[in-house]
Amino acid sequence: MESAGLGNVTVVEGSPADAKRPEQCCDALFMRNVYHHFADPDAMNASLFRATKPGGAIAVIDFMPPGKEAEPAGRAADNFHGVYPESVIRELKNAGFDETTSEKINRRGFIVVARRPAVR
């Protein structure tokens, strides 16, 4: 970032089960072709839920496996590479998000957009 002259970028290194973001710091989160790498989606999604502001959104673009889906820790393995949108929806809902949309975007690709409930 320094060599590119980008002084307004802060790199935050997360861990496999924690995005390491402050509470309610994000209006929206976006992931592309990374969700299937979460070996512990429950822990990561709880972390992402905490980081999202009430009413904030999370968008997951990913791809379905070529056949049967593996358990989370095996979703990146050959012959199982990918995740089904139904799994993403279920796991995000388990963390407290509400589903808003799910759409197929190409032969194996999909997008799921969910929202953290707004405070009433």
What does this structure look like?
This protein has 120 residues and is of the alpha+beta class. The protein is 18% helix and 28% strand. Strands 1-2-4-3 form a four-stranded mixed sheet. The chain is globular and about 45 Å long.
Key phrases:
single chain, 120 residues, alpha+beta, Rossmann fold, 4-stranded mixed beta sheet, 2 helices, 18% helix, 28% strand, globular
Give the topology string: H per helix, E per strand.
EHEHEE
Shape assignment: globular
CATH class term = Alpha Beta
Share of residues in strands = 25-35%
What is the element layout, followed by pairings?
Elements: E1 26-32, H1 41-51, E2 52-63, H2 85-95, E3 98-104, E4 109-115
Give a short summary of the structure:
The chain contains 2 helices and 4 strands, in the order E-H-E-H-E-E.
